[in-house]
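User: Could you write out the 3D structure of this protein bound to copper (II) ion? I've included everything you need below.
Assistant: Certainly. Input first, then the structure.
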Amino acid sequence: MRRVGLVLVAMSAWASSAIAGTINAQVNSDTGAAVASAVVYAIPATGQVPAPSKAASMAQENQQFDPFVLPVQVGTAVEFPNRDSFRHHVYSFSPAKPFELKLFGGNEKQVVTFDKEGVIALGCNIHDNMLGYIYAVPTPYFAKTGEDGKAALSLPPGAYSVKIWHPNQKANGPDNSTSLTVSAEGASDVKAAVVMKSERKAKKSGAKDETEY
Ligand SMILES: [Cu+2]
């Protein structure tokens, strides 16, 4: 009987790691330009997903959030390291996770767990120019587009609903969700045209003097 147990363990390890399908996504704007930093995520039709296991980090560096957009699976604990030598006061008023963190610099970090699906817009009370986004999705299968608008997801074969999100998309644009079946052979292609808001060009530059704060 011991031998049977061993075989079962080996088979389940094989099933979870060796068979993977691929989704190749291309995200453009409605005018045809490649869209960077769009989140492409695939929700299994079964609704069953493994618990979050990836580490995630939203740094403050050179008076900016890094990255600008951070996709995470719901339930992920995100580190907030301050890599600047001066302090930041990070906050969110977003319903998916309101919080504030006073970070005093020199790589001090704190951790926040994002336990609800949705958009979390980040700001800093000291530096008005700082803007970043965490997007919590109910799946571990997600990727972010590069400058070329491309993203690739590796995921188990099966039926999925694929969705796209970008912080500058128009709220009343198409939802761009696609249903597809991923197989172990060959990749599935997804193309989306996201209707974007006009770029925010009037970003304030420079910080308030810390002594004024
Ligand atoms: Cu700041």
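Residues 163 and 177 are 4 Å apart (CA to CA).
User: Perfect, thank you.
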